[in-house]
Write a structure and sequence with these properties.
By secondary structure, the chain is of the alpha+beta class. The chain is 15% helix and 39% strand.
Length: 219
């Protein structure tokens, strides 16, 4: 999946959807890209809390260390057996829900790629299965788990977010590693539940999906 998604909702709407407390005056970024802030819902002491973190865990390879490079970012969790994730994904305290309304994939030829947006019919606020942690390098960060894409997304990307239904939120936040694996490797959601918005907006334009723009003007 690409590293771009949008959230067309107010903090109050998001908190109400997830049954979360926290700062409802928090700023809601209109679009999320790696290394920039995004919103997450996590649970502590039986309470769900809405907060803001940076998207992307620190990533420092052996080659980067040898060159003296600073840590990079990785915001997508595809391989649960990767040493970077294998300990983190086992413990439920590192789970979170990532609110979003649309996710994007590039479309077109290199250098002229545009934004194509994907949303789910009847779900103005979706939940992406995520992980979060307080890191020494970047402070509180989060990343989202990906899965095999469905037929709607596949022409643009082989991966898509692991999207959860409302009745699955508690299972994701409290489930075992077997539940995590089951979510990632289950069949992708049906294509006919998704709406695709093709735009002429260049990939780096910063422009929102057309269906998000009326809502965003109210934020």
């Amino acid at each position: 999946m690409s590293r771009l998604y949008a959230l067309a909702a107010t903090a109050t709407e998001i908190a109400d959807h997830f049954g979360a407390g926290g700062d409802v005056d928090i700023a809601v970024p209109s679009e999320m890209i790696e290394a920039c802030p995004g919103l997450v819902v996590r649970e502590a002491n039986g309470r769900r809390m809405l907060g803001q973190m940076l998207w992307g865990f620190p990533r420092l390879t052996r080659e980067m260390r040898l060159r003296g490079d600073p840590p990079g970012r990785i915001g997508l969790v595809a391989d649960l057996t990767n040493p970077m994730w294998e300990t983190l994904v086992v413990e439920s305290r590192y789970r979170c829900l990532i609110p979003l309304s649309h996710f994007a994939n590039p479309n077109g030829t290199p250098g002229e790629k545009t934004r194509s947006w994907f949303s789910r019919e009847g779900q103005p606020i979706m939940a992406w299965a995520g992980f979060c942690k307080n890191t020494a390098e970047f402070g509180p960060v989060y990343a989202g788990m990906t899965m095999e894409a469905n037929g709607a997304v596949m022409p643009y990307n082989e991966r898509m977010p692991v999207l959860l239904e409302p009745h699955e939120y508690a299972r994701w936040l409290h489930g075992s590693i077997k539940d995590v694996i089951a979510f990632q490797f289950r069949p992708p959601p049906p294509s006919d539940r998704f709406t695709i918005e093709h735009t002429d907006d260049l990939w780096r334009s910063g422009k929102l999906p057309p269906t998000a723009q009326p809502q965003a003007s109210l934020l």
